[in-house]
Amino acid sequence: MRRPKSRAARKQQKNTEFQEIEILNEWIESQKPESGSNPLAIDPLKSKSPIGRIVDPESGVVSFSRYAGARKFYELPISKRTKNGLERGGFKKMTDIQVASLPHALCGRDILGAAKTGSGKTLAFVIPVLEKLHRERWGPEDGVGSIIISPTRELAGQLFDVLKTVGKYHTFSAGLLIGGRKDVDVEKERVNELNILICTPGRLLQHMDETPNFDCSQLQVLVLDEADRILDIGFKKTLNAIVSQLPKRRQTLLFSATQTKSVQDLASLSLKDPEYISVHEKADTATPNRLQQTAMIVPLEQKLDMLWSFIKAHLKSKILVFLSSCKEVKFVFEAFKKLRPGIPLKCLHGRMKQEIRLGIYSQFCESRSVLFSTDVASRGLDFNKAVDWVVQVDCPEDVASYIHRVGRTARYLSGGRSVLFLMPSEMKMLEKLQAAKVPIQFIKANTKRLEPVSSLLSALLVKYPDMQQLAQRAFITYLRSIYIQKDKEIFDVTKLPIDDYSASLGLPMTPKVRFLNQKKKSKIESEKSTIIESETFDGENESAVAKEELLVEDVKDNKEDKDFLLKDAPDLGEGNATETGDIMPATRVLKKKKLKINVHRPVGTRVVFDEEGNTQAPLAMLAEKTSGEIQLDQDKKNEYYKKMREELKQVDKEDKVLERQRLREKRMKKKMKLKKGQREDDDEDEDEYISGSEGEGEADANKKRKRSKIYFHSDSDSDGEKGENEADPAGINAGSISLEEQEQLALKLLNSMHS
Ligand SMILES: Nc1ncnc2c1ncn2[C@@H]1O[C@H](COP(=O)(O)OP(=O)(O)OP(=O)(O)O)[C@@H](O)[C@H]1O
């Protein structure tokens, strides 16, 4: 609403607004819905029935229309400014959560609101915030009137956009206070002038602690979006510290798709007779009706093959892929980008710089692409153009997390699909989801269209040594993520086929995982004692037992894989069928010596061809066929792996020598340039490198590789490599040049620069 130019017109506008506020207050007060009532259960108003203040022409008696049960925004007691904002945003009819909660929220009640993902909870709190401050005639001199807290920065940014749309015609000042921004000092200067703060918990507390005279004593409305997450253990301390600095007399609105009713959780917020509004509590499903959900068994070592095949089969879709750690996201993004699937790739995780995160988020909103993400994108985000698929490569930590992840698709009136990869040991999750009213169908993967990538990944790791470190980190952080999960019924790190998993990432050797060894050790200890008790312990040492355990897991895996691969499965492609398959057992039986293998399984790290030129799994070449059974001698297998390891070590060594030589030459060139008074600006942002997109040229990729290689090199120097250098300088010197040669090279360079 534009400010009138003349004084008289401004006065007139003020008076009109005063009158409007008076009417709104009377309307709200006189038609208050009964506490505990559900406005959704009340009939809608008849069409063409009068709205607002109604004066009987004959008796002159004043009455107000009922707003509990209203289905359209204009039927609510809200200001013209908000109505205009809603109209501008294209919002006319209310969603169920808005119908149920707005009448209670507008009359000042505390709300604990739960509704499915994508059902319009944002407007259910943005409108009451604007209206409360409007009716209180809040101005710049009044300071902070409302605080809206969001668990993630992207979500906070999105809420800010909604507030800007609906609040466009109001005169309040609002600010987005989120971590990762460098301009905290500028924020500190302005924060006291802001009326509405949208913030993440950490940044808000930082202002409370550090900003002089930061004052929230007049706060009217506190909102927690994704409330269960903010009340969760991770934010608990911060939230308690924040709430302790807020006035007790205020309205509090809590919203989430998965709401907490735990008295303990809510006690710190000191809610006053809150309205529990759960519009979909009695619904048949906990997720949106237009969402088609599927789950399938994917053994750990085949997850990347399956993901790659899935992406290749859906090149025209917008796909959101969830992985459990930043390092995994980085690795899969970098590796797949180099393999060029034919669709732009993006990645999002908490370790990226804020500007880049926001950039990636808005790019994904706009275009068809694949976004690899951690749970940072799992809650609240409303990607502008609908997401077609949500793919959960790593199992979510619990049912709530699953619901939020899949909720990034099928929002408001649109449809969407999701697929969950479950390892055989995670099948319990399927039961939990079904028990929580998640209509998820179990399907068999179409392995006919499975395109193995592990061999390509090993080649990548040889070609780009910095990728090896990314793969190692991904490997370790994934195992750690399983290790630290609370739900041990689902997540058991000891059941993971770690050698096969490591090979599937293209790693030549399984990295050592300290916490895993400790866990194994304690497990073995307990197993040992059981065996001793039953007097059958044959005297093998611990490491032999541990090795045995892993080898035996191999055997079982192969059997399972054979089933997995041979089943006649429905299509994984766009129009996939949804036949229910058998659930494979996750338990593993101890066995020894001869290993049965599935020769078709892509377990190797390189492609091997048979005499007819068909690709073969490397181990298949060593297998013997006896009476239809394919068997592999353990010694042969070990020998094969030993040979592979040695080959890779050799290649790795050569690569390192070359790399050191290249770096030395580069340093020399730099020195020369410096001498000439020239400066090189090679300070690059690592995050930028991480978040590039698919389709970059080879030259560009090389440039990036070089940059990150320096980082990789110094990093590895501090680990194992340093020792190697010190112990064996000959390895380095073999590829190096003498001081004389270096001087000659420098002179040549200088001459070429002069000419
Ligand atoms: N009354 C309405 N009319 C039309 N569109 C609406 C209405 N309310 C919300 N929307 C749209 O529905 C989509 C989902 O809304 P919103 O993001 O508020 O959902 P949510 O319930 O908060 O989801 P989540 O639980 O994932 O956070 C948005 O694109 C929003 O613009």
Structure explained in plain terms:
Helices cover 46% and strands 11% of the residues. The strands form five sheets. A seven-stranded parallel sheet has the order 5-6-4-7-8-3-9. The longest helix has 42 residues, at 634-675. α16 (454-463) crosses α17 (465-483). The protein has 25 helices and 21 strands. Bound molecules: adenosine-5'-triphosphate. Adenosine-5'-triphosphate (ATP) is lined by residues 91, 93-95, 98, 115, 117-123, 257, 380, 382, 407, 411-412. Adenosine-5'-triphosphate is lined by residues 91, 93-95, 98, 115, 117-123, 257, 380, 382, 407, 411-412.
Helix and strand arrangement:
Blueprint: H1 7-30, E1 53-55, E2 62-64, H2 80-88, H3 96-106, E3 111-114, H4 121-135, E4 146-149, H5 153-166, E5 174-177, H6 184-190, E6 196-199, H7 201-210, E7 221-225, H8 227-230, H9 233-243, E8 251-256, H10 263-267, E9 275-278, E10 291-297, H11 303-313, E11 319-322, H12 326-339, E12 345-348, H13 354-366, E13 370-373, E14 389-392, H14 399-406, E15 416-422, H15 428-435, E16 440-442, H16 454-463, H17 465-483, H18 498-504, H19 514-533, H20 542-566, E17 595-596, E18 608-609, E19 615-616, E20 624-626, E21 629-632, H21 634-675, H22 686-690, H23 698-727, H24 729-734, H25 739-754
Parallel strand pairs: 3-8, 3-9, 4-6, 4-7, 5-6, 7-8, 10-15, 10-16, 11-13, 11-14, 12-13, 14-15
Antiparallel strand pairs: 1-2, 17-21, 18-19, 20-21
Bound molecules: adenosine-5'-triphosphate (ATP).
Domain Helicase ATP-binding: 102-277
Motif (Q motif): 71-99
Region (Disordered): 663-738
